[in-house]
């Protein structure tokens, strides 16, 4: 039987000390981000604390929560990620990327909406 944390998420079994369970190594970062959900109606700023090809650790603002899935915008690099939360230990969450897209040349309605949010955020400074 799987162990569940207090948020109802499955907690993977502990491996040998120091063993990495991620699919790709993460690099420490301090990047501004924006979490977008509810079809673009709701968004909040966040900080990407580390990043890999497959996921990220994100610091949330005080008194906030996120849905299980959302879009994440990397404000510096103009990339959008479709994310799924895999762990939550407030104020940090860990996400896995379901998709990764450049906002430079958006091709879908979803990405065009995310590009508008990205451009608005970077022009406000």
Q: Which short descriptors sum up this protein?
A:
6-stranded antiparallel beta barrel; Thrombin, subunit H; disordered N terminus; 125 residues; two-stranded antiparallel ribbon; mainly beta
SSE blueprint and pairings:
Elements: E1 3-4, E2 10-11, E3 27-37, E4 42-51, E5 55-59, E6 69-74, E7 79-89, E8 92-102, H1 109-124
Antiparallel strand pairs: 1-2, 3-4, 3-6, 4-5, 5-8, 6-7, 7-8
What's a concise summary of this model?
By secondary structure, this protein is mainly beta. It has 1 helix and 8 strands; from the N terminus they run E-E-E-E-E-E-E-E-H. The strands form 2 sheets. It has a 6-stranded antiparallel β-barrel. Strands 1-2 form a two-stranded antiparallel sheet.
Q: Overview of this structure, please?
A:
This protein is mainly beta and 125 residues long. The chain has one helix at residues 109-124, and strands spanning 3-4, 10-11, 27-37, 42-51, 55-59, 69-74, 79-89, 92-102. The longest helix is centred in the C-terminal third of the chain and has 16 residues, at 109-124. It is globular and about 30 Å long. The relative contact order is 0.18.
